[in-house]
Design goal:
By secondary structure, this protein is mainly α. The protein contains 2 helices and 3 strands. It has a 3-stranded antiparallel β-sheet with strand order 1-2-3, covered by helices on one side.
């Protein structure tokens, strides 16, 4: 059975790994509040109990993972859109080239008929 403090430390280790921030530390104020701060003492999260801070860290991790997945999906969609745009440009270029060739042939035929 793990204690709330052990769960908090496990959650913080996961947060450090995901955020690539080894400088995150838990501080407990004299009033009993728990805080996650970085090496410059910027407060990242805070809560009145270890259990509540663990829940906050787990929510942070869940949000981070969802955002990572959404970013990957967005990148994939953008890559697909770029590929479709390139295909459309290539099709337009081929279509315009064919029109230009037909127009050139038509002008050549008109000039032949004038002579």
């Amino acid at each position: 059975m793990t204690t709330p403090k052990q769960e908090l430390n496990q959650a913080l280790n996961s947060m450090k790994y995901l955020a690539n921030a080894e400088d995150l530390t838990i501080y407990k104020t004299p009033g009993g509040w728990y805080h996650v701060k970085d090496s410059t003492f910027n407060m990242i999260l805070s809560a009145p109990t270890a259990k509540t801070l663990t829940l906050s860290i787990n929510a942070y991790i869940d949000g981070y993972l969802q955002a990572s997945r959404a970013l990957k999906e967005t990148i994939a969609i953008n890559e697909q859109a770029a590929a479709l745009q390139l295909e459309a440009v290539a099709n337009d270029r081929d279509h315009l080239k064919a029109l230009l060739e037909r127009a050139t042939e038509a002008i050549t035929e008109i000039l032949r008929n004038l002579n």
